[in-house]
Amino acid sequence: MRQAGNNEIFSIKNRLKRLKRDSNKWALLTLVIIFLIALPVISIGVTLFAGPGETWGHIVDNLLLDYIGNSLFLIFACGFLVLLLGVSTAWFVARFEFPFRRQMEWLLILPLAIPGYIVAYSYAGIFDYGGTLELVFRYVGMEPFRLDVMNRGGLAFVLAVSLFPYVYVSSRAFFLNQANNLLEASEMLGAGEFRTFFKLMLPLARPAIIAGLILVLMEVLNDYGAAKYYGVNTFTVGIFRSWFSLEEPETAVYLSALLIVLVFGLILLEKFQRRKMVFSSNRTNTQKIRRKRLSRRMQWLIFSLVIIPVLLGFIFPVGQLAYWAVLTYERVFNMSFLLLSLQSFWIAFLTALATVFVAVLLIFFSRWSRMESIKNTAKLGVLGYAIPGAVVAIGIMIPMIFLDRWLMGVLDSLFGVQTGLLLTGTLFALIYAYVVRFLAVAYNPIESTALKVSETIPDSSKVLGVGNLKTFFRIEFPLIRTGILSAFILVFIDVLKELPLTLILKPFHVNTLAVKAYEYASDEMVMEAAIPSLFIIVTVMLPVIFLNRLLIK
Amino acid sequence: MLKIESLSKSFDKGKTYALKNVSFDLEQGDVCAIVGESGSGKTTLARLIAGLETPDAGTIIIDGKVVSSLKKQVPPEKRKVGLVFQEYALFPHLNLFQNVMYGISRQKNKKERAEEVLKLVGLNDIKERYPHQLSGGQQQRVALARALAPNPSLLILDEPFSNLDSMLRMQLRNQIFEIVKNAGVTAIFVTHDTQDALAVADEILILQHGELIQKDAAANLYTKPNSIYVASLFGNTIQLCQEMKSAFQCPLNPDCCHAIRNENLTINSECEFVTHARVLKKTYLGHDTQLLLKLDNGQQLTVLTKDRDVAERIKIGFNSKDVLEFHS
Amino acid sequence: MKKVLLLVLTVAAFYSCKNDKEQTSTQGNGDQEVNIYTHRHYPSDQKLFKRFEDSTGIKVNVINASADELIQKMKIEGAQSPADVLITVDAGRLTRAKDQDLLQPVKSDVLENIISSHLRDPDDYWFGLTKRARIIVYAKDRVDTTELSTYEDLASDKWNDRILIRSSSNIYNQSLLASLIVHNGEEEAVEWARAVVNNMARQPKGNDRDQVKAVVAGEGDIAVVNTYYIGNMLNSDSEEEVKAAKAVGIFFPNQDGRGAHVNVSGAGVAKHAPNRENAVKFIEFLVSEEAQHVFANSNYEYPVNEAVETSQLLQSWGEFKEDSLPLSRLGEYNKKAVITFDEAGWK
């Protein structure tokens, strides 16, 4: 195919000419957004050049193997459990009729409402000496039985039962909407239920499953509270330790960089694996799956299997929290607590709006930019999710302060006005950091619904003489509404649960439920942490149930 | 009206070309067909003209105005090009009337104009319906009405009939091109089907692997294809290889490539070059019968004939005036 | 629809920023205010802040976070930091803040008179507010008190597989090891840490309360914990915790020698404090008898103001001799302690 003229068409001169022609304002705006999102990473990256701190060698000698070993263990153990729980429940709920199936559909999402570290506290409380389990055994007159959950196996279990809904949600969506005709074909070919699932559904659902799994693994690697409490040294624990206990941000940055390499390694590995088998299924096929009715006995068997993760991930921990809450509510619950809840809610709401807004800008600006390279660059926007919250927070503060100092200088010299820090320590800085951290959470659902809309639909709008912006409002926005709404809800949930970043960046007069719960728990008042935790759970539950209805549609 | 000069487009930085060095002109009011197999670059060409893609090299001029070049890219919304997509691309959340109104919302008599084009395609009675409530043919006509409403100076139809069954397709093809011709608009019709192209177009462009290999009036293409590829696009064609030439004992220039159309092969009648053959297999195809022949020199050959009751042994031949000659 | 959302968003964001700006801009105008960065988040503290506000009219603004994070925050904020007072739950962090030039010295007779010299910075950069002792609790049925003696003794073979202690990322453990480094020298401290790791009944995990429970559960025989957690457990809402705390014996180590290791929760005035005077007033208030009484009785800490009696509970544990090592030394060796822990394999 290569012919003469090729060299000329792709000569540097012509490439530059095209670059000039194609660099429209949208490309520029995309780059601006990406820059703002990457700013914390950049400011941290710059410190990488300063070299690691003096304890780096110490960490490599004594701790690094432990960090890597534990983090890898968590990735595999947690990954395995999450797949087991998430995919099996998704398949049961999508494929079979059984008692309380409708209720199970949303009950299975609820574990997402509890922050992982709180689940960790409640399980410690359940299995503790004098813990709930022991009380129950004693009550029924049996010899108390105790299980040590405070180790890395226990950590993997705790994180898995609180995070499996990510995989459940993504694989169920696939089973519900994509699978029906393949399923029927498989049945016609005489394949049994097991064969159909393992040979057909599982490989086909793989991209959907992996998408959920990657979110889970990012959360696992980002976890700080649970790992610290259970005494498991992971990368994130190490980052906090070298930053704060060893006082070496430079070393922490090196560990963060390694962690990021680990995360990207995982993503690339998956991409590489997937490249070997490209599955595409017919997009226009939107026939809903037909549910199978098994015998009554089998139905109850499935019910009892499906309820296990609900019990483990939601009912047991919430039960434990409720018990604690009853013990402590007199001291914890008062008017200022209600105000705090309201504040928490308001911040989450505002952040969710801002994040969705930025995600939409990023996705559509890059689409309008005409340049493939810009479209690929836009995907960098999701990188904040792979970086621990504390690191993002520090990465935001550095440029913010810099900007503040500059602003102060300018205002002082121009107007003689003395101002304090205008941006740092404001809600703006906090929300900015949240947006950086959770952009991926909003980006993915919006992008995937946007991809479901055939490209020719906005194209035909443009050919009819309507510009990009108007096309967005009149055509694309109405068609991707559900994606935007799910994105909004997901970010809202994550912000309500977020901890380390909030701790560092929250302004005076602002407090959140998660911070309150952590304050209690970190001072060994785990029981007192129950009420703020329950408040988070209740606030998150309602949107989660709503989200479920959106996703089923 | 439309002038395209050495247009090239590659999606992988020059490793392969979706379109390579394509040039042609169209006059006002022309109806032109772009024919090619899938992957030949015809949809890319349509999208380039509409402004939905940017070319890597070359120029597109519409009505004397440069709309695409190395220096300039007029966005699609400013080109006044109408485009009907293969999958119609109707806005699913708008009803027919709103779909048609969409492109003319800033015009004065927009309601009247929308009703006018809806009447033109015969769908004004059901204008309150939504796209998913329509049949494929109806959706097709809405897409056409929507594209015609803003009075585009150039209308491109990208595989407009490929999603329809053959009866509907013929009906609609004639209807739609009647509408297009009455509207006096310059039209480009992108298709893989030569029948469709021959039926409606004054002029046909053939694309292969992104290159324009022939542009000619419809009638000429059939009689004077410039390559065996083009010839075979327009009907079952038998290449005359050396063995065939010797079987028929015809003294053709051995430096040229020759072919004969199936319909110009005669069975059991007198003509310039003949040979005998045995019928190995007969397959009834309703209108035609397919014969698998073994020529006397051992060559095998598949031909179609209208004659159902051919004998075991037949005489087969053709005349020199029907031989297609290609210089390549 | 989207436009409306956009509008709401910008207005809201602007409003919230503006709100904050108003609050920060009032700082310079002599409006009575004091900004506290604190690691302490006990209900008793909130009570005290309220009392301070009521009696002085100075508004108290609080940021709660771990001391480490607060120090990083102050460092980055630099001269523009709104912080007036930094409160931590250990002396090591205060020394670090001092070393990183985040605090300023305060000359206050009130503070000097009330707080004994080893509980404050020699250069008056920070002041202890309350004391906690790091003590040993033991299973009454399995440990004879004669077996117990000193921290150093924890390294002896008789404790093999019997010691429960939390992770080395905990600041109280870091302080304890720092004190051992000061007293016995680095080499011995390393040996000690190695031996204790060997003697551990299990890998370090959980908090101090969990160590106590593990003793009662029989996982180990002795645990090293902070006094005030025992106080809190004895007054817990959970019967089981109370039972557990009652089941263990309390032992103050090194009573024949230098005394039990104590640490303080303390405060210092930020270097760039916009409300310096209020900050000093605030710290003075915290060591006043009124405030110290609250500390002593609601949070089971030992007051630094000797005029104030310790709580009934603490009194019931008896008087004890405390290590009079100047706490400022702990900060110097904190990092060394962390590295030593890592090298000893103390998780």
Structure description:
- The complex is a heterotrimer of chains A (553), B (328) and C (347).
- Chain A is 76% helix and 1% strand.
- Chain A contains 25 helices and two strands.
- The longest helix of chain A is centred in the middle third of the chain and has 37 residues, at 296-332.
- In chain A, 52% of the residues are buried.
- Chain A has helices at 6-9, 12-22, 25-48, 56-62, 64-95, 101-107, 116-127, 132-139, 152-163, 165-178, 180-188, 193-222, 225-229, 235-245, 249-275, 296-332, 335-368, 372-378, 389-415, 427-452, 456-463, 468-497, 500-505, 513-522, 530-552; strands at 96-97, 292-293.
- Chain A is an all-alpha fold and 553 residues long.
- Chain B has 328 residues and is an alpha+beta fold.
- In chain B, 25% of the residues lie in helices and 32% in strands.
- In chain B, the strands form four sheets. A six-stranded mixed sheet of chain B has the order 6-7-8-3-9-10, sandwiched between helices. A five-stranded antiparallel sheet of chain B has the order 13-17-14-15-16, with no helix packed on it. A four-stranded antiparallel sheet of chain B has the order 2-1-4-5, covered by helices on one side.
- In chain B, strand 4 (57-62) and strand 5 form a beta hairpin.
- In chain B, helix 3 (110-120) crosses helix 4.
- Chain C is built from 15 helices and ten strands.
- Chain C has helices spanning 2-25, 43-56, 67-77, 91-99, 109-114, 171-184, 186-199, 208-217, 227-234, 239-247, 276-287, 289-299, 312-316, 328-332, 334-344; strands at residues 33-38, 59-64, 85-88, 103-104, 126-139, 163-164, 222-226, 248-251, 262-270, 302-303.
- Chains in contact: A-B, A-C.
- At the A-C interface, helix 4, helix 14, helix 16, helix 17 and helix 19 of A face helix 1, strand 2, helix 3, helix 8 and helix 10 of C.
Question: What is this structure, in a nutshell?
Answer:
The complex is a heterotrimer of chains A (553), B (328) and C (347). With 553 residues, chain A is mainly alpha-helical.
Task: Set out the fold topology.
The complex is a heterotrimer of chains A (553), B (328) and C (347).
Chain A: H1 6-9, H2 12-22, H3 25-48, H4 56-62, H5 64-95, E1 96-97, H6 101-107, H7 116-127, H8 132-139, H9 152-163, H10 165-178, H11 180-188, H12 193-222, H13 225-229, H14 235-245, H15 249-275, E2 292-293, H16 296-332, H17 335-368, H18 372-378, H19 389-415, H20 427-452, H21 456-463, H22 468-497, H23 500-505, H24 513-522, H25 530-552
Helix pairs in contact in A: 3-15, 3-17, 3-19, 5-9, 5-10, 5-12, 5-16, 7-9, 7-16, 9-16, 10-12, 11-12, 12-15, 14-15, 16-25, 17-18, 17-20, 17-22, 19-20, 20-22, 21-22, 22-25, 24-25
Chain B: E1 2-9, E2 19-26, E3 31-35, H1 42-50, E4 57-62, E5 65-68, E6 81-84, H2 96-101, H3 110-120, H4 136-148, E7 154-158, H5 166-183, E8 186-191, H6 194-200, E9 203-208, E10 211-217, H7 218-223, H8 228-233, E11 237-239, H9 242-248, E12 257-261, E13 266-267, E14 273-285, E15 288-295, E16 300-305, E17 313-318, E18 324-326
Parallel strand pairs in B: 3-8, 3-9, 6-7, 7-8
Antiparallel strand pairs in B: 1-2, 1-4, 4-5, 9-10, 11-12, 12-18, 13-17, 14-15, 14-17, 15-16
Chain C: H1 2-25, E1 33-38, H2 43-56, E2 59-64, H3 67-77, E3 85-88, H4 91-99, E4 103-104, H5 109-114, E5 126-139, E6 163-164, H6 171-184, H7 186-199, H8 208-217, E7 222-226, H9 227-234, H10 239-247, E8 248-251, E9 262-270, H11 276-287, H12 289-299, E10 302-303, H13 312-316, H14 328-332, H15 334-344
Parallel strand pairs in C: 1-2, 1-3, 6-7
Antiparallel strand pairs in C: 3-9, 4-9, 5-7, 5-8, 5-9, 5-10
Helix pairs in contact in C: 2-12, 6-7, 6-15, 7-15, 8-10, 9-10
